[in-house]
């Protein structure tokens, strides 16, 4: 067994830190939101590194970036690996970016060795995984897998009123010489490396997490409608105070949904009050709900209760509950999980099986092809924060495991093809 990386660890780390300079914040984090100037600049830098290694860049109608290492059979479904380049407004250097850069390093390593793979190996950076600028997230992977219509994606708008369609057109104009792939194509397998975004690997002193699946997630947009009134003249009993209704709803939701069991994750996030004036009774409150649970039955039941509780506690105001994301729990491919575990063992990395508490693009790819994820630790489990951190050795270890899994899948595919062609 060896802990020496199979990739160029220094190059990987240097490029990851160079990428973090794009959108860098004063507190050491990254603000590089989807389809922004920062992400356009990140594309330029990543495409430049890919071209140096002989990879071919392309995109699609959903603004996904593809970097292809040509294989022997260009018509065969490719092996896809990657993550995303966009960040939260006060995000870190590693969320998403580590997965893209590890995938690029894996592909560059194969290219440098001169052993042409049987099929294309394509690095992908999915559009708008985070959902911080345009909600909901994972637009690129959902468009790719046919789960969301591109026209609906293009209609979504950010807080400034800019539509995804306008931002996508601007991105494509910036890369007008980039070839366009059809939206969605057959994929052999998909692998995604990511920081854990939780504390379990660090607590167990494990370098590699073999991700078994992703817990289910539902999100909702809730709008409470009341009526404006003068704070000094309108009697309490005559008020339709939207903020008071929100307070009742929020209290009831936290009391019931937030205490279902120890696995539930219930969050009321973005809240907007109108007219938000000191001497006016609030007429409208909109807020978001993020609900997660590893058991689909519990997730479904909690989602039903959310709507019921909102309607129960809204009067005399009215309420509209709009479901946004409905992503059941999923399991990853057992053979790819076993390959990740073998590679980790071969390279001497402490390893554990782990369920992902956060959502990732791999959730959607798992519906169309064998898919799996590799987790590496992050300090204190902190993510979506500017002090997010992963150790260079752990990033290199994850990328090395990625390379070995690629090689194993390649050998297995070649062996299968040879047996098939010989009639065995």
Automatic annotation (TrEMBL):
UniProt keyword Cell inner membrane, yes or no: no
CDD domains found in the cross-reference section: M20_bAS (cd03884)
UniProt keyword terms in alphabetical order: Hydrolase, Metal-binding, Zinc
GO molecular function: hydrolase activity, acting on carbon-nitrogen (but not peptide) bonds, in linear amidines; metal ion binding
Keyword DNA-binding set for record: no
Residue span, Peptidase M20 dimerisation domain: 213-315
Positions contributing to Zn(2+) 1 binding: 84, 95, 194
SUPFAM superfamilies (alphabetical): Bacterial exopeptidase dimerisation domain (SSF55031), Zn-dependent exopeptidases (SSF53187)
Coiled coil regions, renumbered to chain: none
Top-rank taxon, per record: Bacteria
Binding locations of Zn(2+) 2: 95, 130, 384
Cofactors required: Zn(2+)
Cofactor note: Binds 2 Zn(2+) ions per subunit.
Family note: Belongs to the peptidase M20 family.
Protein name: Zn-dependent hydrolase
Organism: Bradyrhizobium hipponense
């Amino acid at each position: 067994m060896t802990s020496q990386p199979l990739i160029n660890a220094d190059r990987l780390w240097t490029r990851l830190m160079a990428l973090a300079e794009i959108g860098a914040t004063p507190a050491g984090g990254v603000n590089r939101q989807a389809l922004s100037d920062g992400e356009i600049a990140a594309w330029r830098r990543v495409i430049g590194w890919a071209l140096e290694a002989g990879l071919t860049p392309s995109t699609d109608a959903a603004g996904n970036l593809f970097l292809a290492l040509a294989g022997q059979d260009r018509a065969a479904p490719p092996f896809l690996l990657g993550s995303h380049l966009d960040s939260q407004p006060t995000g870190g250097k590693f969320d998403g970016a580590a997965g893209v850069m590890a995938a690029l390093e894996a592909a560059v390593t194969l290219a440098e060795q001169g052993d042409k793979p049987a099929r294309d190996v394509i690095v992908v950076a999915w559009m708008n995984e985070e959902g911080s600028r345009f909600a909901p997230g994972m637009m690129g992977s959902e468009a790719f897998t046919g789960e969301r219509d591109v026209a609906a994606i293009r209609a979504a708008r950010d807080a400034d009123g800019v539509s995804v369609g306008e931002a996508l057109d601007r991105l494509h104009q910036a890369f007008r010489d980039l070839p366009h792939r059809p939206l969605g194509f057959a994929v052999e397998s998909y692998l995604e490396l990511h920081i854990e975004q939780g504390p379990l690997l660090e607590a167990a002193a494990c370098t590699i997490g073999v991700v078994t699946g992703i817990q289910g997630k539902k999100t909702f947009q809730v709008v409470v409608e009341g009526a404006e009134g003068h704070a000094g003249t309108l009697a309490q009993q005559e008020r339709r105070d939207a903020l008071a209704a929100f307070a009742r709803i929020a209290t009831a939701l936290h009391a019931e949904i937030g205490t279902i069991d120890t696995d539930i994750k219930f969050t009321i996030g973005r809240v907007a009050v109108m007219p938000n004036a000191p001497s006016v009774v609030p007429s409208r409150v909109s807020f978001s709900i993020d609900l997660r649970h590893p058991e689909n039955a519990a997730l479904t039941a909690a989602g039903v209760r959310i709507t019921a509780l909102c309607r129960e506690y809204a009067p005399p105001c009215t309420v509209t509950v709009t479901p946004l994301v409905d992503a059941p729990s999923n399991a990853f491919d057992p053979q790819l999980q076993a390959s990740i575990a073998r590679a980790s063992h071969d390279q001497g990395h402490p390893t554990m099986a782990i369920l992902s508490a956060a959502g990732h693009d791999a959730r959607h790819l798992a519906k169309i092809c064998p898919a799996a994820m590799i987790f590496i630790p992050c300090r204190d489990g902190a993510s979506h924060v500017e002090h997010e951190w992963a150790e260079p050795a752990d990033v290199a270890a994850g990328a090395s495991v990625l390379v070995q899994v690629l090689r194993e899948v390649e050998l297995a595919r070649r062996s299968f093809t040879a047996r098939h062609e010989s009639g065995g």
